[in-house]
């Protein structure tokens, strides 16, 4: 309960306001808003005088200027610790690690899908895949390319060329053979800065799990030239017995793997990732074929369930 004060209990200022303060006439909401914006009696704009506004503006200007300078100093210090040409954390110290993933092109429009499906007699059906591959291979080489081989790696300031003319039927002029119901799929190793493959240094000491046709291919190639041991080998086969029966013969171009002279990747200007064109020469039509392609090197860890060292592809040609 509020007790009303007697005049004798009020202070001098309260008594003065009680008897002498000029009573203001009642105002509408619009008039109150207008007076809040500009009060001619007190010279206040939005409840503050010019002096008050200048003080608070100066405070916030100094505050935000100091904050901006602090952020700029932190950013400058951070950038001084970075190298534009190479990452600070590499290989085992990096999040990416030391196990390169294997990818394929063309990729389906759905991110989570790995199905390449089309009708071999319908240009509108397979043109999407042809266009995807054309876009992927667009760009070409720069001015610092070098025609490398096992005995002639790229000199300093140069990068190895990727010879697209060596892909036989898997070229744009041939529509990557999609119109013939014998599609080409391109494999690539994901780039890891500074990673070097550890090759199998003998054709007699190959992994037991390696497909027999790849083992025989390696023996034939290395019998001709030992330099071919410096290769990250690739194998593609049907995942299940039915898939292996339906996939038909496979051709790998230009090699059945990634030549060692493309490694390591060190963010060279104009660097071109090596590619392997996988040509399915007679896949069974009307059947969904599950394919697993795998990369082979001592330091490429394989785990099918985790998708490490391999890639899963599904192809259906009607």
UniProtKB/TrEMBL annotation:
Annotated GO biological process: intracellular potassium ion homeostasis; intracellular sodium ion homeostasis; potassium ion import across plasma membrane; sodium ion export across plasma membrane
Cellular localization per UniProt: Cell membrane
GO CC annotation terms, alphabetical: sodium:potassium-exchanging ATPase complex
GO MF: ATPase activator activity
UniProt keyword list: Cell membrane, Disulfide bond, Glycoprotein, Ion transport, Membrane, Potassium, Potassium transport, Signal-anchor, Sodium, Sodium transport, Sodium/potassium transport, Transmembrane, Transmembrane helix, Transport
InterPro entries to which the protein is assigned, alphabetical: Na/K_ATPase_sub_beta (IPR000402), Na/K_ATPase_sub_beta_sf (IPR038702)
Membrane topology summary: Single-pass type II membrane protein
Listed Pfam families: Na_K-ATPase
The keyword Glycoprotein is annotated on this UniProt entry: yes
Membrane-crossing segments per the record: 58-79
Role summary: This is the non-catalytic component of the active enzyme, which catalyzes the hydrolysis of ATP coupled with the exchange of Na(+) and K(+) ions across the plasma membrane. The beta subunit regulates, through assembly of alpha/beta heterodimers, the number of sodium pumps transported to the plasma membrane.
Family to which the UniProt record says this protein belongs: Belongs to the X(+)/potassium ATPases subunit beta family.
Full protein name: Sodium/potassium-transporting ATPase subunit beta-2
Species of the source: Papilio machaon
Lineage, broadest ranks: Eukaryota, Metazoa, Ecdysozoa, Arthropoda, Hexapoda
